[in-house]
Amino acid sequence: MTTTSDKQISVLIVDDHPMVREGMRSMLQLPEINVIGEASSGMDALKLTQKLKPDIVLMDIRMPDMDGIEALQAIKKAQLHSQVIMVTTYQNTAYLLRALAAGASGFVLKDISRQKLLETIKSVAAGISRVDRTFLQRVLQDLSAPNTEPSSTISDLVEPLTPREMDVLRLLVEGLTNQAIAYALGIKVGTVKGYVQTILEKLNATDRTQAAVKALRMGLVD
Fold it and tell me: Closest Cα partner for 152 from 214, 207, 205?
């Protein structure tokens, strides 16, 4: 991907509503962004991602033929290098968790400002995942609501996290990849993988997303 400051970030816009696509294209008429294509369905998104190889795919969720999350899964299965940011109107907990589990690098709502959208695109292009923070907080509240899994506390940890594990956890919650965490901490990627595995075990989490959610709910990180 081209992410350096003197290179444009190529973007594919995917939404089944022409007015939304036009609006997003207008928002992204910026020197650092190059909108290289548009698609109106998940199937078209997959085909154009294979053909155009954009740095970023801005993907709607609810679409005909193949929805955005299915298209995301297909893009990841095809081992395409484009990063996918889900863009939706719906503040739906299931959508967020499904998207992150499928490999989305970002998740934003359609009322996002131009500046926030640009910041999200730049962050994701640089390897840093971004999720709408207000929505994430609401999701965490939903997960803590009655009739769901009881809230966890720090005392529920299998074993306390070491200072270095806490460093890794903070960056993991911010959405950084193992490579980005390794760079930030000045350690090897393999070492980061080891820390992440230990963190999952100590938090009794099955994946990075669940670990991030538990860490926030426990108050381990802000």
Answer: 214
Q: In the CATH scheme, what is the homologous superfamily, with its name and number, of domain 9-141?
A: Response regulator (3.40.50.2300)
Strand partners, 13: 38, 58
Structure tokens belonging to residue 44: 């078209």
- Say yes or no to pLDDT of 53 above 80: yes
Residue 202 in contact with residue 158, Cβ under 8 Å?
A: yes
Closest CA to 110 of 161, 51, 68: 68
Average pLDDT for residues 16-34, to the nearest whole number? 95
- If phi > 0 it is left, if psi is from -120 to 50 it is alpha, else beta; for residue 90 that is beta
Question: If phi over 0 gives left and psi between -120 and 50 gives alpha, with beta otherwise, what is residue 136?
Answer: alpha
Annotated domain spans of the chain = 9-141, 154-218
Q: How confident is the model at residue 74 (pLDDT cuts 50, 70, 90)?
A: very high
Cβ count within 10 A of residue 18: 10
Please tell me the pTM assigned to this model. 0.64
The answer to whether domain 154-218 has CATH 1.10.10.10 is: yes
Q: Report the chain's C-alpha Rg in angstroms.
A: 18
